[in-house]
Design brief:
- The protein is mainly alpha-helical.
- Helix 1 packs across helix 2 and helix 1 crosses helix 6.
Amino acid sequence: MAQGAATKTGKRSRAVSAKKQAILNAALNTFSQYGIHGTRLEQVAEQAGVSKTNLLYYFPSKEALYVEVLRQILDIWLAPLRAFREDFTPLVAIKEYIRLKLEVSRDYPEASRLFCLEMLQGAPLLMGELTGDLKTLIDDKSAIIAGWIASGKLAPVDPHHLIFMIWASTQHYADFATQVEAVTGRTLKDEAFFQRTVENVQRMIIEGIRVR
């Protein structure tokens, strides 16, 4: 009996997790198109295949749902930076970070665009996350870069500006994907174009920080 009850509890927990993720996925898709003010919860519920009442059971308001989507985006967005480690050689670490950031732009373009939209609006619902965990992580990784510079392994550049440059050059391919496709006829989903993009962005940034 106990084992049967545990099995039922496990199935119920997985079903709840799957339903919540379906709502978050639908919300990401809708918010990234229309923003928080242009999105109606009915749209999200319909796309997720749940009732509005069911959606509100998990997320009590549109703002609560929006913030949860943004937090999930931030986790995705910062994962490559968390993987940035001091035990790599500097140029290898930075090249790998560029590749991972471009993979995020390729695999999660809607997430990147919604995050960009929130930043353009002054991050009214995410400022606490930005000045807390994000700033702490950036400060930690900047210290690693500063250590490499101090030991003569990288050219003297401001670590924050190096990180900002990597963000700008990699996220461009998600935030301005329509423009990229209009100009090149390609997207990052094209494997050959993705590899050329990685190689070119890596080359331009690495050559700027290589010790000469």
